[in-house]
What does this fold into?
Amino acid sequence: MDLKTTIYSSKRKTSFFSEIKEMFSDLYQSRELAKRLFIRDKKAEYRQSVLGILWAFITPLINALVWIFLSMSGAVKIETDQLPYPLFVFIGSMLWSIFSESINSPLVSSNGARGLISKINFPKEAILLSGFYKTIFNSVIKLLIIVIALIFFQINPGFEVLYGLLMVLFLIFVGNAIGLFITPIGMLYKDVGRGIPMLLSFAMYTTPIVYQEMKNPFLNKLVSVNPLTPIINSTRNLLTGYGWDQPMYLLLIFVISILVMLIGWIFYRVSIPIIVERM
It folds into this structure.
């Protein structure tokens, strides 16, 4: 097998489009290594775990149960127009869990592969791709649980569910784009990894996960302009047989997400050699 030879030089010049072409070429060539890393990490993750794969949905399930209990007890009064509230908050919590994991995936995968990065020269896209595989794997489990919930509440989404699945992929894409953009900084400073869960906890309450709208006009406006709002609403609506939410805003978010992904990817490729040197 012919091995690829890469020459690093201070005089090396490359155009933007040739760099993009090389990025996608490395991504394609790294797919087999990414699959092996994914299988290795999944086996290690569940090797000493009693519940194993169940942990993929236990946390969002507990979050949903808390809000269902608060609603049933009268501690908070939350109403929804289309869906029963338990189903509304359950699907929202599952979708938020998918988004949170997709943001953390690039940083977690890169930090977990520090030993490989510092010792072996290989396409670093394999690390990102293996993390993407893990996110997809865990998301499929959550979607199966959502299907069971839909059957329990006798909800028939019809053909709209296919668009809902595409929106789940879009949700993962947006999360990965954001996560990839902050990964190089997170590899240098551990504060980033510790701060992400806190920021996500706050962001969840500015997104219609456990409620549809707020009575406070300012907070309600904050929720409406949140880019995650149309994504979460559209995904939940389509998975349960309803329509899109703010389709033009969704299209704008899609275009911006592609740009963020490309910039973050380039930033990642450029910064990894510097990070390796510092390690």
Q: What stands out?
A: Residues 8-12 have pLDDT under 50 and may be disordered. The radius of gyration is 21 Å. DSSP finds eleven helices and no strands in the chain. The longest helix spans residues 247-278.
